[in-house]
Amino acid sequence: MDTETAGTGGTEEAARAAAVQTRWLTDTEQCAWRTHLEVNKLLTYQLEKDLQPFGLTLNDYEILVNLSESEGRRMRMSDLAAATLQSKSRLSHQITRMEGAGLVRRENCESDRRGLFAVLTEEGMETMRGVAPHHVASVRRHFIDLLSQEGLQGVRDALGPVAAHLRGERGGPRG
C-alpha cells in the first residue's frame, strides 16, 4: 500500500474505483434532471407566494387538504407525518402553530394513550374552502394550463414510475 492510501484506509482507491463505475449523465439526461429541479423549485416558490396572502404555507395547505379528505377530518399524527413527508417533530411544531391559528386541534387517541390525532377545526375547514379556489387557480396558471393534454399525460407517464419507485423506497404503497 502506498503512503497516499495508507492513512485513509483505502478510501481514495475506493473513490477512484467508484468514479470508474459511475454512469455519468448524458447531456440529454443532465438537461432533463436540471429542468426538473428548476421547475420543482420555481413552482414550489410560486405556489408558496400565492398562499402568503392567506397566511398559509404550502405545508399548511397540504395538512389542511389531508385532514379535509380524511374520515372524520382527523388523522393520527404519525400517519399525517408520513403523508406529508415530515418528521414527527417538524409536524408537531407545525401543528402547534396551526393550533394557534385555530385551524387544527389535537385529540388524544382513545385506543392508544401515546397516540394523538390532528383534527381539522370548523375554522380550518372554512379556511380550506376559501383558499382552495385560489390555490387551484394558481396551480392551473403556473402548471396545468401551460401544458397540452398530451403534455400532462406525458408528465404523468414519465414521473409515475419515479413516484412509485420512491414510495417503495420509503415503504409506502407503490400504486
Oligomer: single chain
Instruction: Please state roughly what percent of the residues sit in beta strands, choosing from under 5%, 5-15%, 15-25%, 25-35%, 35-45% or over 45%.
Output: 5-15%
Q: Give the overall silhouette.
A: globular
Give the % helix: 55-70%
Major pleated sheet = 3 strands, antiparallel
Strand order of the largest sheet: 1-3-2
The succession of helices and strands, N to C, reads: HHHHEHHEEHH
Written account of the structure:
This protein is mainly alpha-helical and 175 residues long. The protein contains eight helices and three strands, in the order ααααβααββαα. Strands 1-3-2 form a three-stranded antiparallel β-sheet. Strand 2 (104-108) and strand 3 form a beta hairpin. The chain is globular, with a radius of gyration of 22 Å. 13% of the residues are buried. The model is unreliable at 1-5 (pLDDT under 50).
Secondary-structure blueprint of this entry?
Elements: H1 3-6, H2 11-21, H3 27-51, H4 58-68, E1 74-76, H5 77-83, H6 88-100, E2 104-108, E3 116-120, H7 122-142, H8 149-169
Antiparallel strand pairs: 1-3, 2-3
Helix pairs in contact: 3-7
Which key phrases capture this entry?
disordered N terminus; mainly alpha; 8 helices; 3-stranded antiparallel sheet; 175 residues
Summarize the entry for a quick read:
It is built from 8 helices and 3 strands. It has 175 residues and is mainly alpha-helical.
